[in-house]
Amino acid sequence: MKWLGFCISVLLLASGIPSTAADGDGLHWNGVKLDRGSIANHLLTDQNGDLYSLHEDNADVNVVAFIFTSCPDVCPVITSNLVSVEKQIQDIDYQFISITVDPANDDPAALKEYSENFNADWPHLTGSQAKLQTVWDDFNINVKVEEIESHDDHDHDEMVHEMIVLYPDNTTSMLEVEMSSLPMENATGWNLTTAATSENNMSLNYSTHEEYGNSVSGINGIDSPDDWSWWWSLYLWNDTNSTWEVSNVGIDSVMIMQDTDHIAWAASNANLSMIPVPMSERHDTTVSHSSQTFILDGDWKPIVAYMGSNWDVSNFVEDMNRAAPVVVDDSEDVPGFTVQIVVMSLGLAIIAARRLE
Questions:
Q1: How large is the greatest C-alpha to C-alpha distance in the chain, in angstroms?
Q2: Which fold has domain 156-281?
Q3: Tens digit of pLDDT for each residue in 301-333?
Q4: Which CATH code for domain 32-149+285-323?
Q5: pLDDT tens digits for 116-133?
Q6: Residue 69 CA to chain centroid, in angstroms?
Q7: pTM greater than 0.85 (yes/no)
Q8: How many CB atoms within 10 Å of residue 199?
């Protein structure tokens, strides 16, 4: 009876053996093994101007690279390597994402051109400096941007102000107005609006309210509808944080050179992230960052990091395969380990029972 009880215990233990293989712990990794928490979800903008959530197309294996389009050396190699990796990956659920470290210059249009040049058809993401800073911090990416000093002396009268128009279909017009075209003192946003449209032969429809001043209803033949399904919204360029901000005052109360140097009129139903950076604010910069490409699991937990661009594509492919969850198929005709233990246990139980007889 003791043998019978022992065999039954083995049988019960065998029934509890899991059928899923290990998820990669204890394996040899070609990249630098990481032990970090999961990356939070973030809402950014892709190269098509559409909002994109990091976890939107979550896969079993997620690859995230940090690049910028004017990068002369490391970034092109990283992107080319990933294109090669994609050609070798088979039978796993994966996705690639590239995130800029130079949002001042990498708007959706710049990222679209970059991705098309490399035939890299995965999401290339940008956003405001503040939004991207939280992403960089989550990945422990250190980004340092230094503006290249300009030694050109500009006369005050030669300063250029800009009015940008974002239409309902997300196309834009960028209109430059020299300071000499505006009143010498107390130039307003309305002065900039009328000068920009007049100098570029664009129509401007507006109404004037006794208390609230001028209100724009149409620009360049695009009029807001009477049902208020969308309207023209005023945005001001914030030079401190290099972002567009909705104006809290009417266009007549905006003081050029005091409140802002540039204004934007945007259709309220357009993708506001498509308002481009003013041309005069696109300074030459040098960007340095810790060049890392990450492999993450389906829970967005970083598993492995590859430093720089001098890494082997085959090694990267191996690590992606290791990161993918592996499930043992119990439906195969050949008995698995669990089945073998069950059969052996039953045999021992039968032999023990016969001896006891």
A1: 115
A2: Ferric Hydroxamate Uptake Protein; Chain A, domain 1 (2.170.130)
A3: 999 999 888 889 999 999 999 999 876 555 544
A4: 3.40.30.10
A5: 999 999 999 999 888 999
A6: 14
A7: no
A8: 13
